Amino acid sequence: MEFDVVVVGGGPAGLAAAIRVKQLAAEKGAEASVCVLEKGSEIGAHILSGAVIDPKALAELFPDWKEKGAPLGAPVTEDRFLFFSETGTTKVPSWMLPACFRNDGYYCASLGNLCRWLGTQAEALGVEIHPASPRPKCSSIPRAA
Questions:
Q1: Contact call for residues 32 and 22 (beta carbons, < 8 A)
Q2: N or C end of the chain: smaller count of CB under 10 Å?
């Protein structure tokens, strides 16, 4: 099988890359064949963690991500930064936290569910997803001239 673009790994970054390639091709009126190789039995099978997600990148891919049903859970409503010791905890006041520790506008989500959703969006755009694919050996990938 031949493809214009092969993405190895069906995680958030790989799926976003595949989606964006198809979007860019469509914007130019061109066709690009894109394939995602995933070693797991299905997209999201190896993504087990929860996360706090800034939806900015998702909104760049899909401005209508809420209407499309992206599985971002509850919005973050409060940040707590605690120091633990043998005798208890001490809360750091919010105003003392650097901006990178503030999660206003972010969402709690399962990365596995987000990957599965991204996989369905990718397939809707024509991306071929091949789960349970072993990783290719570097020697089997042709080099550009």
A1: yes
A2: C
Tens-place pLDDT, residues 80-94: 889 999 999 999 988
Nearest to 45 by CA among 115, 128, 108: 115
Examine residue 145 and state whether it is found in any structural domain, yes or no: no
Residue type, 107: Y
Structural element, H or E, at residue 129: strand 128-130
Domain count along the chain: 1
140, pLDDT greater than 80: no
For residue 52, which of 74, 81, 33 has the smallest C-alpha distance? 74
* 118 DSSP β-pair partners: none
Q: What's the pTM value of the predicted model, to 2 decimals? A: 0.82
